[in-house]
């Protein structure tokens, strides 16, 4: 009978990711702590054991990612968290997870690089690493929160998507949002949907773990749940056995691509803010979208028709959305804490329909609203 | 109408300014307002410059960093010289005179009290100078209620230090009232 009001409280972005993971049912974390992601490991090392879960601090990032894959194959929702330098080291096994279709969540709290860069300063230099960091032609999902509240809800979403599509999902946040503390009202348990991976029925005679369903996603049994089969990062047939057959190979790679690209409605999340009549559209993600939001409000107050488009799912790329905006807007501005990684994609999707420019800041500081406002006014 | 206060808490690493920022932001949320807290710090655990930023508003807070501070707390000479100049002329500068020997030239209102020395001499622990400073900030700026500050403080300190911290908060409140009188 009692309607419990969600309690407003101060929470840090990294803390919200840890809490979101627990709410999504994550019960395994393996990692190697690195600034500015360390709080995620710290909190989960404390809380996972109390929930019957497991926290392992591994010897390095390669081992961490391998342990995450092993744990997930036994049926546990599994994750790791790192920053740019560690993200590079996880790439090889991240590709294994994509190829062997092992659900897992990898958090990258981006810091300033390249290399060890400035460990405590923010950047968005890993946008393309998130897309193409592992070798080989693969599809991937990457989500980009812009608040502490969204760090929580997107972490739940990341687990849901990874279980639903049996794919690694990257949470690509940054030092600003990871270390930001702000007001949140966490949902009550049950308010956010939680998705669990499908399981095959028991006792199938001719079970093929990698036989896809109609949606392109196979129903792979968890280890120790009644089926014996092979998991490999080699090209494999539907039984899981390695193969070099061109027909099998073509079918597998295209299916891995299509299982995401043919289900974009379930995957691509984005926010439109005053874009309906906007002549100038700012495309911004992560912490920078907060500066952009303020800049757009200030531009509107001065009578400039500006709007904000915020990709929440940054990979797969919101092709349709950008194409449609490019047909209406006089110009698109892409502010980023890098030299223009996402701008190139926006330019490609805009197909020459409109002018696309960047605001690129690589000082180790967040782009300010006035820097974006100046760009809006210059067009 | 949107009412916003931008606050910088600055000093040296180890003075507890980031924790003070968290307590202030949490107290403001308990007051029913919106708050964000960010920080910048070097790789050192002690020494080096340390800064916490808190923005308080009755509206959404988009850009989470301080652009023009209304309130600056300076607990070291370096912090004062770095941030006092950014202060809004109608703002408030709060100085720990234990470590700030040469006060700034500013049009802003200036409140000066020896928070660190008071903490050490009256309470036997310089460690709680950050809480003394928070009490002073609440007294002279009114951006946060003492009741919420007390609650937020109690939720973020180690068990067994409740009495010490409560005293530190009250000490700061009184010292600022006297300094402002």
How does this structure look, described?
The complex is a heterodimer of chains A (379) and B (181). By secondary structure, chain A is of the alpha/beta class. Chain A folds into 2 domains: 8-185, Rossmann fold (3-Layer(aba) Sandwich); 270-377, 3-Layer(aba) Sandwich (Rossmann fold). Helix content of chain A is 38%, strand content 21%. Chain A contains 13 helices and 15 strands. In chain A, the strands form 3 sheets. In chain A, strands 2, 3, 4, 5, 6, 7, 8 and 13 form an 8-stranded mixed beta sheet that branches. Chain A has a 5-stranded mixed beta sheet with strand order 10-12-11-14-15, with helices on both faces. Chain A has a two-stranded antiparallel ribbon with strand order 1-9. The radius of gyration of chain A is 21 Å and the shape is globular. Chain B is α/β, with parallel strands linked by helices and 181 residues long. Chain B has a domain at 4-114 and 145-157: Pyruvate-ferredoxin Oxidoreductase, domain 3. Chain B has helices spanning 17-30, 77-83, 115-123, 129-141, 146-155, 162-180; strands spanning 4-12, 34-41, 49-57, 71-74, 92-96, 109-113. In chain B, strands 2-3-1-4-5-6 form a 6-stranded mixed beta sheet, with helices on both faces. In chain B, strand 4, helix 2 (77-83) and strand 5 (92-96) form a beta-alpha-beta unit. In chain B, helix 1 crosses helix 5 (146-155) and helix 3 (115-123) packs across helix 4 (129-141). The longest helix of chain B has 19 residues, at 162-180. Chain B is globular, with a radius of gyration of 15 Å. In chain B, 52% of the residues are buried. The model of chain B has no long low-confidence stretch (mean pLDDT 93). At the A-B interface, strand 1, strand 9 and helix 10 of A face helix 1 and strand 2 of B.
């Amino acid at each position: 009978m009692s309607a419990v009001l969600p309690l407003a409280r101060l929470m840090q972005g990294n803390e919200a990711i840890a809490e979101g993971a627990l709410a999504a049912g994550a019960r395994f974390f393996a990692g190697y702590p690195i600034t500015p992601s360390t709080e995620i490991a710290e909190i989960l090392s404390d809380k996972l054991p109390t929930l019957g879960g497991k926290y392992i601090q591994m010897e390095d990032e390669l081992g961490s990612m391998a342990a995450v894959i092993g744990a997930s194959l036994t049926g546990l929702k599994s994750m790791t968290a790192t920053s740019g330098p560690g993200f590079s080291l996880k790439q090889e096994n991240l590709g294994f997870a994509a190829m062997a279709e092992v659900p897992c969540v990898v958090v990258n709290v981006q810091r300033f690089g390249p290399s060890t860069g400035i460990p405590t300063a923010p950047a968005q230099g890993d946008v393309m690493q998130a897309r193409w960091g592992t070798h080989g032609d693969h599809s991937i999902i990457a989500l980009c929160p812009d608040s502490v509240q969204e760090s929580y809800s997107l972490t739940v979403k990341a687990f849901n998507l990874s279980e639903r599509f049996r794919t690694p999902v990257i949470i690509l946040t940054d030092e600003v949002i990871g270390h930001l503390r702000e007001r949140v009202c966490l949902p009550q348990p049950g308010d956010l949907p939680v998705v669990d991976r499908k399981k095959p029925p028991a006792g199938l005679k001719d079970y093929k773990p990698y036989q896809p369903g109609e949606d392109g996603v196979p129903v792979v049994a968890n280890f120790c749940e009644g089926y014996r089969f092979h998991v490999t990062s080699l090209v494999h047939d539907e039984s899981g056995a390695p193969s070099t057959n061109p027909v099998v190979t073509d079918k597998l790679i295209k299916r891995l691509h299509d299982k995401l690209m043919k289900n974009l409605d379930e995957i691509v999340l984005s926010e439109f803010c005053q874009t309906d009549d906007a002549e100038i559209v700012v495309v911004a993600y992560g912490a920078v979208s907060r500066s952009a939001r303020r800049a757009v409000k200030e531009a509107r107050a001065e009578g400039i028709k500006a709007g904000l488009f915020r990709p929440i799912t940054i990979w797969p790329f919101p092709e349709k959305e950008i194409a449609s905006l490019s047909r209406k807007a006089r110009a698109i501005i892409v502010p980023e804490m890098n030299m223009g990684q996402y701008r190139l994609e926006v330019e490609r999707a805009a197909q020459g329909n409109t002018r696309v420019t960047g605001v690129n800041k690589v000082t180790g500081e967040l782009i300010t609203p006035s820097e974006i406002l100046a760009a809006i006014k210059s067009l | 109408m949107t009412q916003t206060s931008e606050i910088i808490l600055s000093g040296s690493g180890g003075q507890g300014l980031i924790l003070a920022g968290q307590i202030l932001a949490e107290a403001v949320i308990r007051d029913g307002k919106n708050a964000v807290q960010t920080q910048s710090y070097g790789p050192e655990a002690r020494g080096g410059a340390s800064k916490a930023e808190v923005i308080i508003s009755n509206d959404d807070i988009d850009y989470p960093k301080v652009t023009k501070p209304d309130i600056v707390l300076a607990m070291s000479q370096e912090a004062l010289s770095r941030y006092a100049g950014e202060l809004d002329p109608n703002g408030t500068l709060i100085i720990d005179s234990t470590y700030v020997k040469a006060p700034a030239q500013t049009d802003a209102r200036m409140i000066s009290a020896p928070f660190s020395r008071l903490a050490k001499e009256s309470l036997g622990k310089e460690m709680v100078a950050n809480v003394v400073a928070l009490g002073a900030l609440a007294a002279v700026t009114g951006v946060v209620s003492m009741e919420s500050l007390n609650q937020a403080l109690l939720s973020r300190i180690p068990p067994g230090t409740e009495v010490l911290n409560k005293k530190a908060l009250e000490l700061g409140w009184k010292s600022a009232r006297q300094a402002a009188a």
